[in-house]
């Protein structure tokens, strides 16, 4: 898989806004961003309302994913271009869902909304309607998803990549620095995890670093290329960003995202926890 | 916002669930020639220059970070230009900072 198969530039995107079979999808945590201005023709997916289970802690199931994509007018054969705010965190999370549910052609817009805005490219607030489709999803591809027991079993056996900030990793903070501090019962990280903050994989403008820079970054941090990898963060979206870098850009084959992440692990009874850098 | 990692709405008034007596709050504004700049990407860097968090300034140019005591750099990116400022937070409370771009 090459970089072009999974990532498109803002320039490519602007040239292909009206291309046949290409659907732009904005995925945000802050859904109001879309309403004030979005890439022309893009449909909206709300990370919370559309992608999370309303009751249990889990995300949209297969039938729910089919219903959502059908309603948004996305067909099985469409090439889906995902983008969003927060350096594409939620777009990367959605990308992971699309892969989990077996969508053939899905790519991320490199740099997401940030790069698009910094470039001064067009946004509009026009309502977007697409004809409803009958989308058919596959069963979740669990080779991409790690659950809690697998996270525990990965200690000392697989690469564990904690992509949170150094202060969250060491146990100084329990959430990113722009959010009130709350969540898991204890602070710290999974023993033997290496700490490579998601942000190190991105340039200041939100685009991904080059493959050479990325490979060097993880190698230097101690990633063993001969082993399987589990990535985690606090709730699983920042780690989707790193999962994308490791599996989709660098091509490592056995890479899973642990979406339960620290809010689950840090609340489990009886599991080992490490603090400090 | 407890269940998300996303950026909460920025504004100058503290949310009711935040206790400024316990938390280190960096409160600031992005300006260009004295005029507030909304829609700037504001990045919080620690004392080693390492990225910590990012928010988008409100239409009034406001932004806020919940941090830890220490020296911080706040860097703003905008279509009109970039800029940065430093702030030292000795302990809990509100710490004000202004970043000019352009």
Short descriptors:
heterodimer, A: 277 residues, alpha/beta, Oxidized Rhodanese, domain 1, 5-stranded parallel beta sheet, B: 102 residues, mainly beta, Immunoglobulin-like, 4-stranded mixed beta sheet, 4-stranded antiparallel beta sheet
Description:
The complex is a heterodimer of chains A (277) and B (102). Chain A has 277 residues and is of the alpha/beta class. Chain A is built from 11 helices and 10 strands. In chain A, the strands form 2 sheets. Chain A has a 5-stranded parallel sheet. In chain A, strands 6-10-9-7-8 form a 5-stranded parallel sheet. In chain A, strand 2, helix 3 and strand 3 form a beta-alpha-beta unit. Chain A starts with a helix and ends in a 12-residue tail after the last helix. The mean pLDDT of chain A is 94. Chain B is mostly beta strands and 102 residues long. Chain B has one domain: Sandwich (Immunoglobulin-like). In chain B, 0% of the residues lie in helices and 53% in strands.
Question: What are the SSEs and their pairings?
Answer:
The complex is a heterodimer of chains A (277) and B (102).
Chain A: H1 3-6, E1 7-8, H2 10-15, E2 22-28, H3 32-36, E3 43-46, H4 62-71, E4 79-83, H5 85-100, E5 106-109, H6 112-118, E6 145-146, H7 148-153, E7 159-162, H8 166-170, E8 194-195, H9 211-220, E9 229-232, H10 238-249, E10 255-258, H11 261-265
Parallel strand pairs in A: 1-5, 2-3, 2-4, 4-5, 6-10, 7-8, 7-9, 9-10
Chain B: E1 24-32, E2 35-36, E3 41-45, E4 51-56, E5 62-67, E6 70-78, E7 81-89, E8 93-100
Parallel strand pairs in B: 1-8
Antiparallel strand pairs in B: 1-2, 1-5, 3-4, 3-6, 6-7
